[in-house]
């Protein structure tokens, strides 16, 4: 990585022709990926990716250039290219930077690079065997292990310098069951900003077993009913609802582009008074956690909706400047090849006071969603559609038979207004959030909640104009 004086020289070069702001983002990313298919380890990939990007902002114009050449000369050349977009004058005062320290820390007990590939392969094989041992109806199992060690250096013309190491580990299991022409799938995943110690708390074989059991159970499930009905979503379902139906609409760039149903509604009631929505980059161990965002701003906890009232949006530097706000530490990018944009981190509906079991008992008829699949949303009007990975019929306050093929279709703000029960539990899920062609690791969560009415099993689809998707891991 570069010295303080070298960073200052690069930033001065970036602003040589003018400009309001400049920053540099450098990263070295070491990754390992292991895949198992057809009962065999099909791939073991390791790699290193290194590079840097320089950004110059002049008014509402942004110029960005990146390179794999991280030498001082290479970065000075990139800075000169980025500087060509500047159209404003700047002071001749040179940039002076100071190192920022994190506001919280966490210990990685078993860094991935200190664990042998054979031990990683062993966890993959355990998950594979766990799924295959369930039943002979399991015809295919896919297991993917991945870890990443990302070292970043960020500096900007405001005088900030940040150095950080980010470590994430994950394991994903997909099981396919088939019987008499019927094919169903089950999946399970785990992951977090943790090292290999994640397997001390989570059993890879049990993860595979759960995926296999779900796939086999769905073979016997009845088709999901269609129509409007009450929906109870378990905390185990994760927060796909809050992520898609609400979270993306609270990202400031979509608000500023008039692509959010939540635009110009600060201080207004946008959800049930039982609903509080939080985005928190500081939760230890979660998949979307970080000490600094990709602009060098401290990771933060921010309340977006409080007791149903919209409190604010998620900002990066550029969108914050436009609204005369401070960045909320939500500037994220997939790699040095992309500019940062506002993104969620760990987003959740806060736990309430209701007993989750009593919520079910108090629901005469409806559908109980235990696991969610993927989803998408049209952030302009809030319309969404989600897949249900595991759902059950509720009859007279009891969970009855499993159903398959269910979807949930509705409108985000309307659905949040119709939340009439919020449980005291809270369950997280992980995913890769796609937006503007960039993927970002996230977590989402919710307690057990009851929505008075949604369309279940309908065929209505939505067009995600903001191109936001959730790939559930």
UniProtKB/TrEMBL annotation:
* Residue ranges of every copy of the Metalloprotease TldD/E N-terminal domain listed in the record: 22-86
Its lineage reads: Bacteria, Bacillati, Bacillota, Clostridia, Eubacteriales
Instruction: Note whether Thylakoid occurs among the keywords.
Output: no
Task: Tell me which Gene3D superfamilies the record gives.
Answer: PmbA/TldD superfamily
- Domain of life, per UniProt, equals Bacteria
Q: Where is the Metalloprotease TldD/E C-terminal domain?
A: 227-458
Which keywords has UniProt assigned to this entry?
Hydrolase, Metalloprotease, Protease
Q: Which residues form the Metalloprotease TldD/E central domain?
A: 111-219
SUPFAM superfamilies listed in its UniProt record? Putative modulator of DNA gyrase, PmbA/TldD
Source organism per UniProt: Dehalobacterium formicoaceticum
The entry assigns this protein to a family as follows:
Belongs to the peptidase U62 family.
Keyword Protease: yes or no? yes
Could you tell me what this protein is called?
Answer: TldD/PmbA family protein
